[in-house]
Structure to design on (603 residues):
């Protein structure tokens, strides 16, 4: 996987999937209107904390957070972050449901204790998931983290679980069981 | 060096000698996976059909109707049809489908059947409160968006969690239950106190809890930032499991010298009934600090507070009394089995004479699918959570308390200490 480059947007405190990241009621409303898409959910990403975030953030930027993805296993929050065109989330702690859902949606998550001390708002970062390496290009600080293993990188490289599974089916590694009946 | 129950279960499920916290592993499970009828086929379920792939083992998937009940809300009719069509298309056998009138909240329904075997990984399709099944000594978690991947391949990946041990000493005082233990500890360790971890509950208070209360306690795990929770199986657990399944199993327990990311120790001998005040889930106070706060709605139910033992607690307070004329109290058993037992014990006679609403078993009001809250209503509930909009209007307020506190408050039309009725 190629290194990811972008600017840092810092969010402190506990960030709930159903409130700070993207209110649950928005996901309900968009579903009712048939507008449940990354792009639509992205318009509400982090707006409870920074109302202009979706307008300010640029494609490829990072969310740098303290406790990311608190609460239920609702995956609309991951979609909302992707819709805001964020490339990855790097946080002190990642809630496990949030981590799993994000990776399955194709959004890399890195748990990196100490990240908030090493990065300032707007810093330019380069992250290398397979090497487990982060460089703060603005301050020349370098941090190491547990490399993301190849079988997870494969899913991220494919763009998430669905495209990954599609490749697997097409390559014959997942059988088409229904056709045999 | 010793291992935790979690490390042992995950190593077995991954076919490895050892699994360390933070490691990404692939696991399989021989436990059934229940799926609620949410009626959306996100998470790759639609592609099981579209690509002709089906599912890895139709026998191991169970459809449990338990989130909607007899409601017109939340697209119920359409959800049921879509779920039913999907089940047929991928070949789920008819006997694995528990429709309305047979089902209940899937994590409670599964616990009653001991689908989560001690020592095994247990996976649910959805519902962040599957952790309740950890009370059976299983690694219980929810596939969530990754469900389609598991259904297609019979495998899922997880990042092994660190373990946080919480030792609870003392003896539960009158008017309190497992939920108060949880809230009191949550109030102290905060919403990230067990961040990303597996909580291992232990100590004399946990040993003395009934299985109902252990399920309730474990179901609340995510509010401490934890992923899930587990209790080392004891005689009570093994008797419960053996009475419900003929499946063989190999229970695992933590070694005495196992390593934990953190160990907390609490004594709850002076515990008072706890109340969570809106809108934050972790702002917890003694009922005494909130007594007198007007409420007009009540809810006793959900996987946190809708077990048989919780209905008994409510009936103890409501017996021979009527709730306040301004108050609507919804009491919903979690499963049809709980309903049947509660009927046998005469609990529903008490509830109806007290003028409560008694819907069919389901999650219902917990997420606003039955008797939703309107603007400016104030509810006290034994449900899971209280964020704005959880039970209907985002202008309504939700307090959370144990079933006795909810019952006592509904008698008075204001938050009340249940101990005066005991």
């Amino acid at each position: 996987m190629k290194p990811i480059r972008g600017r840092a947007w810092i969010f402190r405190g506990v960030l709930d999937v159903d409130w700070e990241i993207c209110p649950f009621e928005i996901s309900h409303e968009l579903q009712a209107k048939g507008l449940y898409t990354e792009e639509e959910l992205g318009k509400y990403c982090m707006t409870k904390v920074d109302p202009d975030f979706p307008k300010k953030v640029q494609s490829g930027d990072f969310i740098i957070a303290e406790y990311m993805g608190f609460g239920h296993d609702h995956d609309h929050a991951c979609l909302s972050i992707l819709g805001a065109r964020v490339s990855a989330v790097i946080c002190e702690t990642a809630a496990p449901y949030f981590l799993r859902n994000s990776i399955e949606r194709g959004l890399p998550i890195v748990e990196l204790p100490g990240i908030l001390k090493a990065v300032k708002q707007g810093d330019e970062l380069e992250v290398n998931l397979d090497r487990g390496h982060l460089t703060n290009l603005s301050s020349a600080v370098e941090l190491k983290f547990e490399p993301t293993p190849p079988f997870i990188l494969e899913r991220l490289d494919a763009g998430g679980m669905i495209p990954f599974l599609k490749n697997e089916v097409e390559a014959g590694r997942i059988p088409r069981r229904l056709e045999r009946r | 060096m010793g291992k935790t129950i979690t490390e042992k279960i995950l190593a077995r499920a991954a076919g490895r000698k050892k699994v360390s916290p933070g490691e990404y592993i692939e696991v399989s499970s021989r436990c059934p996976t229940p799926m609620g009828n949410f009626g959306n086929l996100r998470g790759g379920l639609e592609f099981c059909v579209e690509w002709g792939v089906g599912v890895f083992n139709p026998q191991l998937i169970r459809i449990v109707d338990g989130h909607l009940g007899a409601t017109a809300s939340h697209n119920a009719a359409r959800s049921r049809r879509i779920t039913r069509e999907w089940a047929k298309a991928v070949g789920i056998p008819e006997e694995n489908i528990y429709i309305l009138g047979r089902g209940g909240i899937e994590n409670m329904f599964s616990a009653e059947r001991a689908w989560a075997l001690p020592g095994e990984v247990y996976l649910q399709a959805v519902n962040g409160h599957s952790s309740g099944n950890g009370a059976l000594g299983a690694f219980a978690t929810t596939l969530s968006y990754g469900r389609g991947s598991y259904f297609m391949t019979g495998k899922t990946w997880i990042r092994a969690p660190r373990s946080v041990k919480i030792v609870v000493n003392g003896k539960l005082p009158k008017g309190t239950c497992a939920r108060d233990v949880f809230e009191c500890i949550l109030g102290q360790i905060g919403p990230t106190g067990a961040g990303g971890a597996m909580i291992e509950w232990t100590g004399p208070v946990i040993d003395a809890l009934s299985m109902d209360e252990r399920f309730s306690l474990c179901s609340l795990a995510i509010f401490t930032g934890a992923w899930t929770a587990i209790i080392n199986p004891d005689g009570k657990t093994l008797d419960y499991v053996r009475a419900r399944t003929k499946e063989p199993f190999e229970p695992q327990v933590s070694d005495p010298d196992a390593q934990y990311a953190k160990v907390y120790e609490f004594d709850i001998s002076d515990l008072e009934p706890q109340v969570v005040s809106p809108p934050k889930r972790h702002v917890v106070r003694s009922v005494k600090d909130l007594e007198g706060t007007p409420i007009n709605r009540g809810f006793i139910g959900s996987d946190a507070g809708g077990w048989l033992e919780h209905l008994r607690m409510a009936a103890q307070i409501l017996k021979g009394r009527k709730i306040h004329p301004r108050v609507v109290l919804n009491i919903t058993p979690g499963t049809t089995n709980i309903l049947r037992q509660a009927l046998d014990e005469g609990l529903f006679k008490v509830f109806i004479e007290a003028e409560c609403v008694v819907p069919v078993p389901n999650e219902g009001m917990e997420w606003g699918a039955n008797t939703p809250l309107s603007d400016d209503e104030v509810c006290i509930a034994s449900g899971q959570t209280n964020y704005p909009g959880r039970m209907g209007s985002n202008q309504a307020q939700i307090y959370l308390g144990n079933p006795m506190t909810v019952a006592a408050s509904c008698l008075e039309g204001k938050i009340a200490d249940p101990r005066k009725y005991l």
